[in-house]
Amino acid sequence: MILYFSGTGNSRYVARKIAEISGDDVISINERLKKGSYAPIKSSCGKRKTSLLLASSQL
Question: Which end of the chain is more exposed for a tag (fewer CB within 10 A), N or C?
Fold first, then answer.
């Protein structure tokens, strides 16, 4: 799972390139925060199952 925060698009570009190589999911933190989505993010890439919870100080 690749999480990125990008204001200019540079980090998004790099995150997508890494995902191409690794086969991981790419998730924009910007978009999740804009949508108000604070639900855990789940990924099942490879053999590990991962869960991540985003938090914002602007709640």
Answer: C
Domain count, the chain: 1
23 class by beta-carbon count within 10 Å (0-12 exposed, 13-18 middle, 19+ buried):
exposed
Number of residues assigned to the chain: 59
Calpha distance 20→4 (Å, rounded) = 15
25 backbone dihedrals φ, ψ, rounded to 5°: -80, 150
Q: Is residue 12 part of a domain?
A: yes
d(CA 25, CA 43): 7
pLDDT per position as a tens digit, 30-58: 999 899 888 887 766 555 555 555 554 44
